[in-house]
């Protein structure tokens, strides 16, 4: 299964931090550095494994299975607030 | 019909007020610091004000924006009605009571600022210290008025609603706000450059902590005076807030009910 970003989102970058404005609900969400990077990676549809693999390669020292769990949790939370969708 | 002129922010306004009671209510709302204007001068905005509209606001009826064929904007709530021409320069306000008029004027002026991306109105008090403006933002009950009162005799630019200009030259200026609550003295000088934004929290100790710009932005958004009309407008407002926090440092300020917090600031 791949994941995709919600389209109606405006992205604000401040001091390396990412803030997402859902243009439909006007909800504002702040992402940490890793969350911002996952959002960036989802500029094209990717699977959980693809995202986790990229994050694993970019952040030294973390265990792969922990990263996969964290990415999965992040994606679930983002789906819940409507900023990411399952693309099938 | 009474005609009065007032400058709000950098905007010259001509008020045409229908009747003594309406005039009294306008003066209760934005003060009576009327300007003497030379004959022939044109205002930036013209606002006609009359009473006799609607009923008291019960807190349940939302603001409605009604479309109009000629491009005019009509904004209605139980206790006020605002009709502005398509270019926004001419507005007619009808109101029920003080609360209705005050909200209507704030709604109208927030839209004036919106139109030109001039700035924002923030739920905050604002104090002048060493020729710089210090803004204390918080929701109802946070202590904005308390801070304003404890800061005297420093000049006050606002005791609950500050008018902040995001200037084209890269600066941020705070203008004297006529939208006062407890402290109605007018500060004629200014505008003053904004030195810092303080998100206030009453506490048993006194300290301040600089916060990141993103934290500042998230904390400021629910303190902006704004009536959501369409998503594009709200996006532009958020962009202005982003510019604001990029130009001015923001802090959390924990304060006791005395003026010692100034030592934590300056």
From TrEMBL, chain A:
Gene3D superfamilies, per the entry: Coenzyme PQQ synthesis protein D (PqqD) (1.10.10.1150)
The protein, known as: PqqD family protein
Source organism per UniProt: Cohnella lubricantis
Automatic annotation (TrEMBL), chain B:
Superkingdom of origin: Bacteria
Protein name per its UniProtKB record: SynChlorMet cassette protein ScmC
Native source organism of the sequence: Cohnella lubricantis
InterPro entries in the record: P-loop_NTPase
């Amino acid at each position: 299964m791949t994941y995709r970003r919600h389209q109606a989102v405006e992205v604000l970058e401040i001091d390396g931090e990412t803030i997402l404005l859902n243009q439909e609900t006007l909800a504002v969400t702040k992402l940490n550095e890793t969350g911002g990077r996952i959002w960036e990676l989802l500029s094209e549809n990717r699977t959980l494994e693809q995202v986790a693999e990229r994050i694993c390669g970019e952040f030294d020292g973390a265990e792969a299975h922990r990263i996969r769990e964290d990415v999965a949790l992040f994606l679930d939370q983002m789906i819940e607030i409507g900023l990411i969708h399952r693309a099938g | 019909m009474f005609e009065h002129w007032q400058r709000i922010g950098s905007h010259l306004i001509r008020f045409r007020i229908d009747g003594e009671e309406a005039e009294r209510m306008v003066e209760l709302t934005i003060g009576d610091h009327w300007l003497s204007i030379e004959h022939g001068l044109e205002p930036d905005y013209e606002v006609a004000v009359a009473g006799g509209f609607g009923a008291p606001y019960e807190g349940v009826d939302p603001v409605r924006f009604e479309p109009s064929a000629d491009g005019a904007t009509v904004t209605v709530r139980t206790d006020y009605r605002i009709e502005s021409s398509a270019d926004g320069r001419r507005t007619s306000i009808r109101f029920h009571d003080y609360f209705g008029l005050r909200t209507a004027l704030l709604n109208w002026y927030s839209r004036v600022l919106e139109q030109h991306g001039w700035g924002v109105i923030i739920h905050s008090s604002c104090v002048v210290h060493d020729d710089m403006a210090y803004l204390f933002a918080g929701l109802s009950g946070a202590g904005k008025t308390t801070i304003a009162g404890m800061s005297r005799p420093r000049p006050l630019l606002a005791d609950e609603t500050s008018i902040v200009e995001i200037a084209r030259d890269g600066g941020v200026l705070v203008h004297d706000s006529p939208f006062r609550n407890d402290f109605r003295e007018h500060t004629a000088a200014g505008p003053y450059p904004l030195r810092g934004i303080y998100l206030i929290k009453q506490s048993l100790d006194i300290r301040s902590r600089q916060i990141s710009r993103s934290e500042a932005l998230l904390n400021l958004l629910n303190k902006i005076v704004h009536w959501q009309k369409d998503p594009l407008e709200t996006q532009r407002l958020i962009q202005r807030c982003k510019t604001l926090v990029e130009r001015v440092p923001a802090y959390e300020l924990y304060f006791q009910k005395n003026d010692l917090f100034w030592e934590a600031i300056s």
